[in-house]
């Protein structure tokens, strides 16, 4: 039997731990906020991503590329073993590079990597390909300047949700446009790899939380208003040519609307001749590894071990 065979028991209701089931049930009973479609864009951004603790090690670099400035939010140890380029989540319409310092601090402490989170432009003010172009420009800048700036080479790329969505086309662009294949690892957590909509985006998304199909559609309409382009391989990684990619870890929960996206891209990664791991977490909702539950610690421990094994020390 192939070592890549999926375990069907992971997807059964009885696989969900008591702690995870209880936490999910509690979340479902919380009073709902107003519908996204009843809020202004600024209200959505404030409700979805409030202030986050700032790392004492955090600093900012302003890089310039192709006529614009891009903010790089840096959390780094004194002597990094490599550089991890991070792309934040938020549906490509919310959040920012400086909203995830607790996670970046954890990765710095467990791997010795310098974490550099990219402040890419957000939709709807800046639809596709703005965020893609910013991620590409930042990756190219880090590939050329990481050694000088941090004393270590660019080693890994990754992100959560929209960050994973951007990470794969960034890898493809660096390979095809710049001949750079120096990434040693790709940490890809519950990305949207098909803007035209995978089956789980419809079937799980119909009743999922904290995001649902309506929220996914709102984000897609913001960053991809041209419906005819939603299967463009640059926008939707499910359709990209994936040879010469680094080892990847795909992390996703069984209650995530983007479950199918991770399952499919994991298989395509392997079919293109690359190494890949698939980490499936029973009962995990979208963004579960940021929640105060044991399942989150399990997922984050595996992410840290993956980065440490392939890109850290």
Count of separate structural domains: 1
Calculate Rg over CA atoms.
18 Å
Query: In DSSP terms, counting alpha (H) and pi (I) runs of 4 or more, how many helices?
Result: 9
The CATH topology comes to: Rossmann fold
Strand % is 15-25%
Helicity, in percent? 25-40%
Query: How many angstroms does the end-to-end distance come to?
Result: 32 Å
Question: CATH homologous superfamily, by name?
Answer: Alpha/Beta hydrolase fold, catalytic domain
According to DSSP, the number of beta strands is 8
Instruction: Indicate the overall shape.
Output: globular
What is the top-level CATH class? Alpha Beta
Going by helix content, strand content and strand pairing, the class is alpha/beta
Secondary-structure element pattern, one letter each: HHEEEHEHEHEHHEHEH
* Biggest sheet statistics: 8 strands, mixed
